[in-house]
């Protein structure tokens, strides 16, 4: 189990009951008395892995409550959004090998806005990048890129609908970044004008309007994909999932 071991979950902790329910009802663990080891995982969110001592069953828990301080309603809403996003993509048969979206297992507003999902044993994309940059293993990275491209193409093709893409949100986000750079005096007004001109040229190209909306991962960064054997890929962390232009995900991977 990756992560730093931080102890056992106390039996009187509400989290113990939550994990026990998931272990018995969702993972079909038959141990009468359960004990959960806790491991703090690295990342931008408060995420822990829990391993049941006797059965070896594992669960990942993401706590939204910490991010939103005392606003548990907001935390619960975010947890529910990600839960439903996972369920949505899984309904497109993105389950198993080679394309897998992790299974949501439960959520609780009152336990720090927690979302529980299945544990998937795999290599992070960032690890494959490190193997190439630090050890010269380019072949391994190319294979992972091939697997990821196959996954994203499958997800996007299966989830395309009949609506054209609305590029306004991306353009507004672009303007936000440009304004931020301008205020920080990283770019001048001439740069701002040129970037806005390029933005408009991008949006107005006829080819931009020939594609259809797809379900996007929304945060397709190296930490949010895990790789198994062969072409197996699992997607995690879908809190930013949305409808949009399929190149949005490709850009997040490249950027």
How would you portray this structure in words?
The chain has 255 residues and is of the alpha+beta class. It folds into 2 domains: 115 residues; 132 residues, Aminoglycoside 3'-phosphotransferase, Chain: A, domain 2 (Alpha-Beta Complex). The protein is built from 7 helices and 12 strands. The strands form 3 sheets. A 6-stranded antiparallel beta sheet has the order 1-2-3-4-7-6, with helices on both faces. Strands 5-11-10-8 form a 4-stranded mixed beta sheet. Strands 9-12 form a two-stranded antiparallel ribbon. A hairpin with a 5-residue loop joins strand 10 and strand 11. Helix 3 packs antiparallel against helix 4. The model has no long low-confidence stretch (mean pLDDT 94).
List its traits.
alpha+beta, Aminoglycoside 3'-phosphotransferase, Chain: A, domain 2, four-stranded mixed β-sheet, 255 residues, 20% strand, 2 domains, globular
Order of helices and strands: EHEEEHEEEEHHHHEEEEH
Which structural class should the secondary elements be placed in?
A: alpha+beta
Per DSSP E runs of 2 or more residues, the count of β-strands stands at 12
Question: How many separate helices?
Answer: 7
Q: Give the CATH superfamily of the largest domain.
A: Aminoglycoside phosphotransferase (APH), C-terminal lobe
- Summarize model confidence as the mean pLDDT: 94
| N-to-C span | 29 Å
**CATH-derived topology of the largest domain:** Aminoglycoside 3'-phosphotransferase, Chain: A, domain 2
Beta-strand residue fraction: 15-25%
- Tell me the domain tally: 2
What does the largest sheet look like? 6 strands, antiparallel
Main β-sheet, spatial strand arrangement = 1-2-3-4-7-6
pLDDT below 50 for ≥5 consecutive residues: which ranges?
A: none
Helix content: 40-55%
């Amino acid at each position: 189990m990756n992560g730093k071991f931080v102890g056992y979950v106390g039996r009187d902790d509400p989290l113990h009951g939550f994990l026990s329910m998931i272990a018995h009802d969702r993972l079909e663990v038959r141990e009468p008395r359960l004990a959960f080891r806790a491991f703090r995982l690295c990342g931008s969110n408060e995420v822990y892995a829990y391993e049941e001592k006797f059965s070896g069953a594992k669960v990942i828990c993401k706590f939204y409550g910490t991010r939103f301080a005392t606003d548990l309603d907001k935390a619960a809403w975010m947890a529910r959004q990600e839960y439903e996003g996972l369920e949505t993509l899984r309904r497109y048969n993105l389950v198993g090998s080679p394309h897998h979206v992790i299974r949501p297992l439960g959520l609780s507003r009152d336990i720090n806005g927690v979302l529980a999902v299945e544990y998937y044993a795999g290599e992070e994309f960032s690890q494959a990048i490190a193997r190439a940059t630090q050890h010269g293993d380019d072949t391994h990275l190319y294979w992972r890129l091939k697997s990821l491209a196959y996954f994203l193409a499958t997800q996007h093709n299966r989830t395309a609908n009949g609506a054209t893409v609305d590029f306004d949100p991306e353009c507004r986000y672009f303007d936000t970044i440009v304004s931020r750079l301008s205020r920080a005096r990283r770019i001048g007004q001439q740069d701002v004008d040129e970037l806005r001109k390029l933005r408009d040229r991008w949006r107005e190209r006829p080819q931009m309007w020939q594609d259809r909306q797809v379900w996007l991962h929304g945060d397709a960064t190296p930490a949010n994909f895990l790789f198994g054997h062969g072409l197996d890929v699992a997607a995690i962390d879908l809190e930013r999932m949305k409808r949009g232009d399929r190149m949005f995900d490709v850009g997040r991977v490249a950027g």
